[in-house]
Design a protein that fits this description.
- By secondary structure, this protein is mainly alpha-helical.
- The protein has one domain: Amino acid/polyamine transporter I (Up-down Bundle), CATH 1.20.1740.
- About 75% of the residues lie in helices and about 5% in strands.
- It contains 24 helices and four strands.
- A hairpin with a 2-residue loop joins β1 and β2.
- The longest helix has about 30 residues.
- The chain is globular.
- The N and C termini lie far apart (about 70 Å).
């Protein structure tokens, strides 16, 4: 069975990651598709990722909260839920994988891409909130499948919207099964416990995390928001403290590590493929980490309590900043400053080696953080997957429970397959989501820009009025 899975993943990668040769480096077309969209929306929205960041912080702090606004959860809870899906092993294992493929310079391009990803995230969330759906029982749901269907229908192109929304939902019900989270969290547990090739131990771990996720997912979005609102600050704080300790222990090497990351990003003769090799590796992992352009976290933001779609778009643009610009950069610096990137590892073992430079027991801290990151991502994406399933199959409780059983039953597979297979399968399915999603975003870019400009202008005027009153 594992051989069949390996063969399937290889065929899937060849199809999804078709590439062209540029300066001797294979550059995937899907990577270019996402990179162009990020730059386009950054320019189209007038560098909103810079202009609206202070406003986004005010919204998260509750300065514009409206408890009576339509929606299911608060804007803060929506951000926590979305972050639990984006702040995950992509920040730990993903950075290590990027460095193993593209060298330290990949980390620089992850940082740059995170900046441009903020604009794309704003665009997809704003559209998702504006065209979210009210279910038959008065609850809210949303995401690219609904915004594609409803937005195109509003323009008299209902059939196109149904097709694009259906394609997105079909890919999503498989892409959101986070076997990579199970794979890499078990990999770290294996590093510290020494299970070796014991498939029984791997399967037991996979069954445990699947059962725990199922218990939370049964409770719906309010249960998920409650859990993630607690987990995200704790796990993020624990991991960042761990990274800061690594940097403190290796403080003398920080300037040279930064120099290596920056110079390798522009080194045309680097052994990992030069500038383009570093860029492609950083781009692929940064997209997986931030999910900008993929549209997944828009499903969580779509149920936030707000009357202004762009308000939630502003909240969402903080995600790539926290996830990719801050946490991924911190991980990369820890890996490079500790010298772990030179040890020939290609996954989370590289990050674990960086933690091991502090103390022999310090990788246990990473193991706790990794489990929490993986678990929070699984429950967030489980909710996303269920919404995509409901788009296709309707609101039937029986069918929804059957899909959740399928979702949880597939998770243990991640613990027993090798890392390259897990990465290939999830990356391929994940990146396919960006095709229908970005087509829709381009089509409605003018509408998104008008929403953004009107909201920022209104918020600025209200802020000035309050200052004059004071």
């Amino acid at each position: 069975m594992l051989d069949a899975i390996d063969a399937f993943s290889a065929a899937l990668v060849q199809t999804v990651f078709a590439s062209v040769q540029i300066a001797g480096v294979n550059v995937q077309l899907i990577v270019l598709w996402l990179a162009v969209a990020m730059v386009f929306f950054t320019l189209r929205l007038g560098f909103l990722n810079l202009r609206a960041t202070p406003l986004a912080i005010d919204i998260v702090r509750g300065k514009r909260a409206d408890a009576s606004a339509p929606g299911e959860i608060s804007q803060q809870a929506a951000l926590a839920t979305a972050l639990s899906g984006t702040v995950g092993l992509g920040n730990i294992a993903g950075v290590a994988i990027a460095i193993s493929l593209g060298g330290p310079g990949a980390a620089f391009w992850m940082f740059v891409i995170g900046f441009f990803a903020m604009s794309l995230k704003f665009a997809e969330v704003t559209l998702a909130v504006k065209y979210r759906q009210v279910t038959h029982d008065g609850r809210y749901t949303g995401g690219p499948m609904w915004s594609l269907r409803n937005a195109f229908a509003a323009r008299g192109k209902a059939r196109l919207g149904k097709v694009l929304g259906g394609v997105y939902a079909f890919f999503a019900i498989f892409a959101f099964i986070q076997i990579i989270q199970v794979n890499q969290s078990y990999s770290q547990l294996n590093v510290i416990m020494g299970f070796g090739e014991d498939k029984i131990a791997a399967l037991i771990y996979g069954l445990f995390i699947a059962t725990a996720a199922g218990v939370v997912l049964i409770g719906g979005v309010t249960s998920i928001a409650r859990v993630t609102s607690t987990l995200v600050p704790f796990m993020g704080g624990l991991y960042v403290i761990g990274v800061l300790i690594i940097l403190a222990v290796n403080v003398a090497q920080i300037p040279s590590a930064v120099w290596v990351i920056v110079t390798e990003a522009f080194n045309p003769t680097a052994i990992h493929g030069g500038v383009l090799g570093a860029f492609v590796a950083g781009m692929r992992r940064a997209i997986y980490s931030s999910e900008a352009g993929v549209g997944s976290s828009a499903i969580a933001h779509a149920v936030a309590k707000t009357r202004e779609p762009a308000s939630e778009g502003c909240v969402a643009l903080l995600e790539p900043f926290i996830d990719t610009v801050v946490i991924c950069s911190a991980t990369a610096l820890a890996i490079v400053v500790s010298g772990a990137w030179k040890l020939g590892m290609n996954d989370i073992a590289m990050t674990s080696a960086a933690f091991g430079t502090v103390s022999v027991w310090f990788p246990y801290v990473l193991a706790v953080a990794v489990f929490l990151f993986a678990f929070s991502t699984i429950i967030a994406t489980g909710y996303y997957a269920l919404q995509a399933w409901k788009f296709l199959a309707g609101e039937s409780r029986v069918l929804s429970r059957l899909y959740m059983l399928f979702f949880c039953s597939a998770l243990p597979i991640g613990a027993v397959i090798n890392v390259s297979t897990a990465v290939n399968i999830i990356d391929s399915l994940f990146f396919l989501l960006a095709i229908p999603n970005i087509i829709g975003l381009y089509f409605f870019s003018g509408e998104i820009a008008r929403e953004a400009n009107a909201f920022v202008r209104d918020a600025t005027q209200k802020s000035r009025s309050r200052e004059e009153t004071v």
